[in-house]
């Protein structure tokens, strides 16, 4: 069944209310590798209920609608969907408990032509129970099997390249072999990240790590190196997924200091020396420093 672009652009996402609990906050932090070492006093507030803090990247799973493109009504070849670009912006620190409200819509559908696929962009606003906007999330997926329907609405936002010089800092994070199985417990149950048969059908020799897990791990590196683990200083983060990252690999994060509050970032699968995340840019509030 071919996609109906008008139907996709009008896809209805009911307003969703999401109860954030401390256990969710701690599980999310552990799933992206926080708490190593377990005695680090800067990381402990994200994985321990006494004085619990919420990672800014957790906006990605608050009010998350699941893998909605798998719904047969979309007409999308869901096995060939890839998450290619992502952006979050934070207006206020995310709560460690309490109710949040999310609203989501499709903001763009861009046809690349028959055999070339299409891009679909969704935007989600996250507010607290009083209506105060906390965060915005923009996700761009490539529909590799669904191009050629004709006509486009909206556009995919361009991203700036990282500086053409040696990074100011490099940080390596080993990824647990079971990292994808842990991260899916935060709400993203796409079988591509758990079922070897589904991964093979999509062209991979084994399940890949969730793009948003990679995104969060890179964000963690920025939070540590450029904001001293202070989530209130983390204002926005965007980037492009350029290749799959596999559980068990080492994520190598390269960081550049930009003008003013800008931080640029790129990440590689160290063992393969393959760039997996590129054109990353974060905005960190005044006072950021690059630690040694």
From TrEMBL:
GO terms for MF: (3S)-3-hydroxyacyl-CoA dehydrogenase (NAD+) activity; 17-beta-hydroxysteroid dehydrogenase (NAD+) activity; enoyl-CoA hydratase activity
Top-level taxon: Bacteria
A Pfam family assignment: MFE-2_hydrat-2_N
PANTHER family assigned to the protein according to its UniProt record, in alphabetical order: PEROXISOMAL MULTIFUNCTIONAL ENZYME TYPE 2 (PTHR13078:SF56), PEROXISOMAL MULTIFUNCTIONAL ENZYME TYPE 2-RELATED (PTHR13078)
Coiled-coil region list: none
Single Gene Ontology BP annotation: fatty acid beta-oxidation
Organism: Sphingobium fuliginis (strain ATCC 27551)
Residues annotated as domain Peroxisomal multifunctional enzyme type 2-like N-terminal: 21-145
Protein name per UniProt: Dehydrogenase
Limits of the MaoC-like domain: 162-264
InterPro entries: HotDog_dom_sf (IPR029069), MaoC-like_dom (IPR002539), MFE-2_N (IPR054357)
Gene3D superfamilies per record: Hotdog Thioesterase (3.10.129.10)
């Amino acid at each position: 069944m071919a996609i109906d672009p008008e139907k996709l652009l009008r896809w209805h996402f009911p307003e969703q209310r999401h109860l954030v609990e401390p256990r969710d906050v701690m599980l999310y932090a552990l799933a992206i590798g926080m708490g190593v070492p377990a005695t680090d006093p800067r990381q402990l507030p994200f994985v321990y209920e006494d004085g619990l803090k919420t990672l800014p990247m957790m906006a990605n799973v608050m009010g998350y609608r699941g893998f909605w493109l798998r719904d047969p009504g979309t007409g999308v070849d869901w096995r060939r969907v890839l998450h290619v670009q992502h952006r979050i912006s934070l207006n206020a620190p995310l709560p460690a408990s309490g109710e949040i409200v999310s609203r989501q819509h499709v903001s763009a559908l861009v046809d690349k032509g028959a055999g070339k696929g299409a891009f679909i962009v969704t935007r989600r606003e996250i507010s607290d129970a009083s209506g105060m906007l906390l965060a915005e999330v923009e996700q761009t997926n490539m529909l590799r099997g669904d191009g050629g329907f004709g006509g486009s609405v909206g556009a995919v936002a361009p991203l700036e390249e990282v500086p053409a010089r040696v990074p100011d800092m490099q940080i390596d994070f080993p990824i647990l072999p079971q990292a994808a199985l842990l991260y899916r417990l935060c709400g993203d149950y796409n079988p591509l990240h758990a079922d070897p048969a589904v991964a093979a059908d999509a062209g991979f020799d084994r399940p890949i790590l969730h793009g948003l897990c990679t995104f969060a791990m890179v964000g963690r590196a920025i939070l540590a190196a450029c904001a001293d683990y202070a989530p209130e200083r983390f204002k926005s983060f965007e980037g492009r997924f350029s290749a799959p990252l596999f559980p068990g690999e080492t994520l190598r994060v390269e960081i550049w200091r930009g003008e003013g509050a800008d931080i640029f970032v790129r990440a590689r699968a160290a063992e393969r020396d393959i760039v997996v995340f590129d054109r990353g840019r974060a905005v960190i509030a005044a006072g950021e420093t690059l630690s040694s």
